[in-house]
Amino acid sequence: MKLILLGAPGAGKGTQATRLAEHYQIPHISTGDIFRANLKAQTELGMKAKTYMDAGLLVPDELTVDLVMDRISQEDCANGYILDGFPRTLAQAAALDAKVQIDAAVDVEVPDENIVSRMAGRRVCPACGEPYHTEWKVPKKEGICDRCGAELIIRKDDEPETVLKRLVVYHDQTQPLIDHYGSMDRLVTVDGTLSVEEVTEAIVSALEARA
Ligand code: AP5
User: Fold this and answer.
1) 88 lines ligand 1 (CB under 6 A)
2) Res 41: pLDDT
3) What is the dihedral of CA 173, 108, 27, 30, to 10 degrees?
4) Does the beta carbon of 11 lie inside 6 Å of ligand 1?
5) Who's near 87: CB < 8 A, 6+ residues apart?
6) Does any ligand 1 atom lie closer than 6 A to the CB of residue 19?
7) How far apart are CA 115 and CA 108, in angstroms?
């Protein structure tokens, strides 16, 4: 199963990708997590990506495409993968389409007005990437990741002004991918305002209906 998760920043792509990766037993590949891991390790890529990420802008395609093409060529991707946050531009989609045929692009739809409050409550694990929320997904022990025990953090790009900028960038550069995958008959749309469990169920049933 080769899946793409589309959706605005904070729509729940990472949350759903983790659950779907477990369900289908395939790797979850998040370009945002890869850039953050590079930043933590202070690599050249991480330092370059930081400037764009902190400003709420997209990292240039030339830094992103090869990275993903290389990752999906690895052995653990032989049975498929879930791409979370890639592609994000029509040029990235063209590069992916030229290499593989995906099974579906899942658009997790959440109106802009829900996004800012979601992001305000988001906490993430800097070690394993698991997302939490102060209201909707509270860790068992306050401030600590259930999965790996690391201390949770607030992402720098979750400041309200940066979130608004990311939304503008999303509508301008990433939303056109919905029509792109629709025209290829690969699009699955789910209501991302439902509970986390309901969204996963909606995605799995829509994918089963297409199989
Ligand atoms: P990235 O890390 O991919 O950020 P994003 O797409 O903006 O998405 P988020 O991670 O913010 O949100 P999400 O949709 O995963 O939601 P989550 O599950 O956390 O990218 C960061 C930056 O990296 C980009 O801005 C860009 O600079 C760069 N980048 C990455 N990929 C790139 C690419 N391909 N090209 C160029 N640049 C790239 O959920 C959000 C919150 O809501 C959480 O607190 C969660 O617990 C909660 N939540 C989730 N689902 C629900 C629900 N159903 N109900 C209630 N709460 C929920």
Assistant:
1) yes
2) 93
3) 40
4) yes
5) 4, 93, 95, 96, 177
6) no
7) 12
Cα-to-centroid distance, 84 and ligand 1 (Å):
8
Q: For residue range 136-146, list pLDDT tens digits in order.
A: 899 999 999 99
Pocket test for ligand 1, best of 6, 29, 59 (most atoms within 8 A of CB): 59
Return the structure tokens found at 2: 């080769």
- Phi then psi dihedrals of residue 81, to 5 deg: -170, 165
Q: Which atom of ligand 1 is nearest to the CA of 15?
A: 18
Instruction: List C-alpha distances in Å: 78 to 5, 26, 73.
Output: 19, 9, 8
Active-site entry in 13, 36, 50, 118? 13
Contact 154, 123 (CB under 8 A): yes
Verify whether ligand 1 is closer than 6 Å to residue 7 (CB atom). yes
Say if pTM beats, i.e. exceeds, 0.70: yes
| Annotation marks residue 186 as catalytic | no
Q: Is the pLDDT of residue 117 over 90?
A: no
pLDDT band for 106, please (50, 70, 90 cuts): very high
The pLDDT of residue 198 is 98
Residue 166 bears catalytic tag: yes
Residue 148's region, left for phi above 0, alpha for psi from -120 to 50, else beta, is alpha
Name residues whose C-beta falls within 8 Å of residue 104's C-beta, 6 or more positions apart in sequence.
3, 4, 186, 187, 188, 206, 207, 210
Q: Give CA–CA dist 180/167, Å, rounded.
A: 19
**CA of 132, closest atom in ligand 1:** 46
